[in-house]
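for ur thesis appendix - Acyl-CoA dehydrogenase. copy paste whatever u need, i formatted it the way the template wanted (i think)
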Amino acid sequence: MDARFTAEQDEIRRTLRELLHKRCGAEELRAAVDTPAGHDPALWTTLAEQLGLPGLALPEAYGGVGCSVTELALACEETGRVLAPSPLLATTVLAAPLLLALGTEEQRSNLLPRLASGALTAALAVPGTCLATALGLTGDNHGDWAGGGRAGGVQAKRSEDGAWRLYGQVDQVLDGHSAGLLVVAAHSGGFSRSRTLLFLVRAGADGLVRMRQTSLDATRPQARLQLRDVDAELLGHQDADVLSVLSVLARVGDTAAAVLAAEAVGGADRVLERTVEYVKQREQFGRAIGSFQAVKHRLADLYVQVQAARSAAYYAAWATAASDERVGPLALAQALEALRATASEGVQLHGGIGFTWEHEAHLYFKRAAGDELLFGPVHRLRAYAAEEARLFGGGEVAV
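the 3d part is after this line
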């Protein structure tokens, strides 16, 4: 493994960092999250047209750039540094790979070029609070997480003419209020032939009600979807194998975990950078508090933790394409832990100002906590990884 980045990869990082520095400062961030979309559409258009970010990891045949997950992870590390609110995670990391892996050629040709250009955004809708389970991050995704029978979730029924109709409710859908396309996980077959399938629902479909929800992390807007006998299109062929659907979801989950890990590392690095700048300026007893040995030790520990998380995130991004190892969830656990630690220490070392609403330190802390609620928590990510690796004799790991 050659750990050095190519000139193209370094250029992606440099160009994106310069753009986000100009277009996504603290004031722009707060203004963007207060808009109905939850992000700045003008910035999203710029990211798509100038950098091709939505199609970075999509094949050139479908209008993408043709890069690997590594380039996408490096790009998300930069967006994570500034907590840039955008449909990138929902569209490019979660929804587009599902369309690429499971969609028919007609579905790919019609939808992927629009996703790659940024003209269309998408969101993955998984019932309840089961996103981490559906992606295979904290447990086996072969269960009944999509609902079924009286278990709630989303139900899919097929009429005599072959059309599919969905009904049910989905909470905590990332960018679900603004996405032009929804990839909905639904239960079909009833008790006799129970299976989980994915369906495409267009924005504006009759019977679809979307409501933006208040979320802990405002930079990751979420929505509640109500599907009241909504017309839907099966993702893939009519004879889709449920096991292949679940395996693709798990594979996408591994990739998403690697990208999210890089994003969390970017946030942790920025918090540490800002904290070091502050302790050099803040004086107490006639000297900068950064000169105190206790403060130096705390910052040194954070630096080691962030660098270890960065190494894990880079390796996970590389491993998704170059090996069969499934290390994304472990990298995500380490990165989220680093982000939570640096954000917490950042708040502490900023003193009184670190607790104020006006300062940005709390935004990074909320990102760490919010991502753990969506994709974790950390101890369950590690426990399931240990169970898969049979580190404790092949038995189940208590969580």
